[in-house]
Design a protein that fits this description.
Helix content: 25-40%
Number of strands: 22
Distance between the termini: 105 Å
CATH architecture of the largest domain: 4-Layer Sandwich
Number of domains: 4
CATH superfamily of the largest domain: PPM-type phosphatase domain
Length: 575
């Protein structure tokens, strides 16, 4: 089962000559139906402007088109807010740089409300005084609040698209039920029809899952009936409304596989075997979870890496989905420090993933080959890994398993993050999914994972700091105790072990930088990766050991001593 809805829409200028409202809806097919959902939006211009109908049309059209162009790795609120803010900034720029700079109320300004139905949840974004209602179990609930400020008997919009430099739209989400009906409307409807009146008009609407086509016609007829009733009741404004009814919901909130999971799992391959034009050269790694091979693409003679699931795990959809997501992630992150997918789009006859071949060694092996690596070498590797993490974080992807075995180092010294098996993606995250098993390797995992909390970008930052600490010292900042501290009280008793040693030549400020990045409490760490990477190379004044007065101002110090000596001599002579 998939998400299925019926929609009815109507818009009228009412008693006005110009309709400044605009509305739209987008019902995509798979995979966008599961990845992005169904989007509806309504916008209302302001009567003081003669061009706000352009703002309404621009806001709705740009939102419905641009939202579906955002990365599938982004979460619904992040993608929707980014698109909405882009529309706002464009409208605001037209007002500021055009003829309406001195009087924005005559410029490109409108209200905006959007409803996104994805999987089993509804997501609502709202600016201004258009409204979204929910009709459920014969009850009508207003889901948005009017952004209006009242001064006596008059009022004005406190927030609207294009009306100010800063936009702070309302956002919230709620779970869906089959039979729910959402109403999106401009103020021409609800200013003359009270909520009890609207509820009475919606009450005859009953779900009819056997006749979805007829149900859709009923919604369209009901939308016009509501508008006609408002007009009869004396509405003097434009009237626009959308009705959307939830007919069926997905069986669960899991997304379909990034690749067809119905394909068979390939058998254990031997050198010389061929699969989909890929010739097996040699196995790179084999375990009870996966088989990794070095292969050559026969048509192009390109070396690639093929990763196939273990036959023993072929019947576990969760495992297959996570393995297939690795290639999905690689295709959506563009960074020289993140593993890239193979540029081959031929149909596949078996279930596997393909990546570019990296001619190099793991960071673990590099560390064994460079037992006396310099600070500059380690700092360079840390910075490159950090850039790879930043690229992942921009796509709302957490790696969650950063360790030496998951970083490749080329002969030229480039560091590349690999293996996204434990990655957490906001865009592919099920709406009702919560933190589960502890991802990654215990010694490199952030302490909050052991408390059952979900990870964040600061969790990846912690893992990067552990990696840096271990490269510098061969030790771990808290030793093996970290995995056994499963309560907040126990974690507060953790004692950071300095990276410095008796024969260490590392600067003291570097130890303080690592200590801050390795705080058990994520709120006490650096709040951004860029801050940590900057402090690794630039001494933070807060972390430097205070110097003595003679070191800070030697000339002034000795001059003061001489002056005090002279005064002492004069006092002795006088007495």
């Amino acid at each position: 089962m998939s998400l299925q809805v019926s929609i009815g829409q109507y818009s009228s200028a009412g008693r006005k000559t110009l309709n400044q409202d605009w509305f739209g809806a987008c019902l995509p097919t798979e995979p966008q139906l599961s990845n992005k959902g169904i989007a509806l939006a309504v916008a209302d211009g302001i009567s003081s402007s003669t061009v706000s109908q352009i703002a309404s049309e621009t806001a709705v059209k740009s939102f419905l088109s641009d939202y579906y162009c955002t990365s599938d790795a982004w979460s619904v609120p992040h993608a929707a807010l980014q698109v909405l803010k882009a529309s706002h900034n464009w409208l605001y720029a037209q007002n500021r740089n055009g003829p309406f700079c001195s009087d924005p109320d005559k410029g490109y300004v409108c209200t905006f409300s959007a409803l996104i139905l994805r999987q089993r949840h509804a997501h609502i974004l709202h600016v201004g005084d258009s409204r979204i209602y929910l009709w459920r179990n014969q009850q009508l609930e207003q889901l948005t609040r009017d952004h209006r400020v009242w001064r006596g008997s008059s009022s004005f919009l406190s927030q609207a698209l294009g009306a100010g430099a800063v936009l702070e739209p309302d956002y919230h989400s709620l779970p869906l039920l089959a039979g729910d009906v959402f109403l999106l409307a401009t103020d021409g409807l609800f200013e003359v029809l009270s909520q009890p009146q609207l509820m009475a008009l919606l009450e005859p609407l009953q779900p009819n899952p056997e006749l979805p086509g007829a149900e859709q016609a009923d919604l369209a007829e009901l939308a016009q009936q509501l508008a006609d009733t408002a007009l009869t009741a004396g509405s003097k404004d434009n009237i626009t409304l959308q009705l959307v009814r939830i007919n069926t919901l997905p069986a669960d909130s899991r997304l379909p596989a990034c690749v067809d999971q119905q394909l068979p799992v390939p058998p254990v391959l031997q050198p010389g075997d061929t699969l989909d034009g890929l010739q097996i050269i040699r196995p790179l790694q084999q375990s009870n979870r996966s088989h990794v091979y070095l292969v050559q693409d026969n048509p192009t003679a390109t070396l690639l890496v093929l990763k196939a699931p273990s036959i023993d795990l072929a019947g576990q959809p969760d495992y297959l989905e996570r393995l297939l997501r690795e290639e999905w992630i690689a295709k959506r992150v563009n960074s020289a420090n993140v593993l890239r997918p193979a540029s081959i789009n031929r149909p596949r006859t078996a279930l596997y993933t393909l990546f570019e071949y990296i001619d190099g060694q793991t960071l673990r092996q590099w560390q064994l080959d460079h037992p006396k690596a310099t600070l500059e070498q380690i700092r360079s590797l840390t910075e490159q890994i950090g850039k790879g993490l930043q690229a992942l974080h921009r796509s709302e992807i957490l790696h969650q398993d950063l360790r030496p075995q998951n970083v490749m180092v080329t002969p030229q010294g480039s560091a590349i993050i690999i293996d996204f098996g434990a990655a957490r993606l906001a865009g592919l995250q099920a709406d009702d999914e919560v933190a589960g098993d502890i991802p990654g390797t215990a010694l490199y995992s952030a302490p909050e994972y052991f408390l059952g909390a979900p990870g964040s970008t600061r969790s990846d930052l912690y893992s990067l700091a552990v990696l840096t600490y271990q490269l510098l010292s061969g030790r771990f900042p808290y030793g093996p105790e970290i995995a056994r501290r499963r309560s907040l009280t126990a974690q507060k008793r953790l004692q950071y072990q300095s990276v410095l040693s008796a024969d260490s030549e590392l600067p003291a400020w570097l130890d303080k930088t690592l200590e801050k990045a390795l705080q058990p409490d994520p709120n006490q760490r650096y709040q951004a990766l860029s801050e940590f990477l900057y402090d690794l190379r630039h001494p933070n004044a807060k972390f430097q050991t205070p110097q003595s007065l003679i070191e800070l101002h030697p000339l002034w110090f000795w001059q003061s001593c001489c002056l005090l000596q002279c005064l002492l001599i004069l006092w002795l002579l006088a007495s």
